[in-house]
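User: Before I run my own analysis I want an independent prediction to cross-check against. Here's the chain; please return only the structure tokens and, at the end, one sentence I can use as a sanity check.
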Amino acid sequence: MSRPLPLPKLPVRREAAAVDNADIFRRSASYVDRILRGAKPADLPVQVPTKYEIVVNLKTAKALGLTVPLIMQMTADDVTE
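Assistant: Structure tokens:
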């Protein structure tokens, strides 16, 4: 009987595509400022993330038998080996 192959460990804190937390905090600060100046929270528009961070883990990709295109590696915010 064959044993299943172990899955490679994925990074805990960073995902393949994640929102940029620093951008979220900056935008939140402007909301707080508007509320402190008297704006009603219900009148403020709902915002969604507009800036994302792309991380490529080449070691994990290789363990999964995947080839990451060079253009994706070049445009990623972070490439780990």
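Sanity check: Residues 21-36 form the longest helix (16 residues).
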